[in-house]
Amino acid sequence: MQSHDWPRTLAQWLKEARSVVVLTGAGMSAESGIATFRDSQNGLWSQFKSEKLATADAYRQDKALVWGWYVWRMAMVHAAQPNAGHLALAALASLKSDLSIVTQNVDDLHERAGSPDVVHLHGGLFTPRCFACSRPHKGFEPPDDARENPQLRLMPPRCGHCDGYIRPGVVWFGETLPETAWKEARRRVRECDLLLVIGTSGIVYPAASLPMMAKAQGARVVEINPVTTELSTEVDASWRATAAEALPRVLSFLSDDRPTP
Ligand code: NAD
Ligand code: ZN
To answer: Any catalytic annotation for residue 161?
Structure first.
């Protein structure tokens, strides 16, 4: 199929679908200026591998390094805006009542775009909690200049309850996913008949098992990604485009129609 057919085809599949899940990864936010994991290993941060920073051991060994890196990421996300892809997904949700987003992203750009129903598989940058007692820690704001300094070193604040150190609210490598979010993601994928997989390399498990789960139970699975991924051979269709290019084009085919039930 020619690539110029994709917006129309996908719009048609969206119309036909009863229940839609959109699985997003770091590529969803790339056009908002937030580096994906792989990109962030090049550039300024090349001396540290992000996988090496995103572990409980790394935090134990050097809290200022790890907390500083997350504070820099918080500041980047604060300054970023949802892109045309995030906005189109929010608009799609208003046309399609049974559409939910399951994201691996730790930013809040889906919410800020207006998407009403977002499941965060890997936690969030803005929900830090105590490393010792797990209580949420409210009120932390990144310093004004944090965005300019990807190599920021900063000791984490202390817990008001037990004086333990505060850790980022994200899921690190080697940790299990938040139980409710993972359960909810699987439930929605089991019930969907169309899964859109946008901006994920498909290498981080168990999130990467969701497309196979959808396929196994007969759902259509469509990937939107500018490059080939681990998932490309498994899905029904791969649209080589970016999120901000592709999604507004699909929306334009749908928005003339009246809302579907
Ligand atoms: P990844 O970095 O492994 O892969 C990103 C994918 O996005 C790649 O396949 C790439 O080709 C694709 N991509 C790049 N630009 C795109 C665009 N404009 N439109 C569509 N696709 C594009 O990311 P991942 O698969 O999400 O897994 C890595 C982990 O990194 C996740 O667990 C996530 O929590 C974390 N992460 C999150 C953020 C964020 O919250 N914004 C940023 C970096 C990493
Ligand atoms: Zn505590």
So the answer is: no
